[in-house]
Amino acid sequence: MVLKLKPIVYTSEYYSSKHAAKKMQQIMLLKAMQITTDPKKLKQLTGIKTVAEVYRTLDKIAILK
Questions:
Q1: What is the pLDDT, as a whole number, of residue 51?
Q2: HSE of 54 in the Cβ direction (CA atoms, 13 Å)?
Q3: Is 65 helix (H, G, I), strand (E, B) or coil?
Q4: Rounded-to-integer distance, Cα 32 and Cα 41, Å
């Protein structure tokens, strides 16, 4: 008797909730860019911890689009 096993597909809410925060951060950054383009000011408006994270988020948005 041979079993036909199917591949395992992981569907967990951990993955979606982890990336939902990044999506919200990207949306907030795009809204803040309507006001200013200064990275230090964008950091304050969006609540991002570092200016480098602002640049990383902008790069991710550019890659995804």
A1: 94
A2: 20
A3: coil
A4: 9
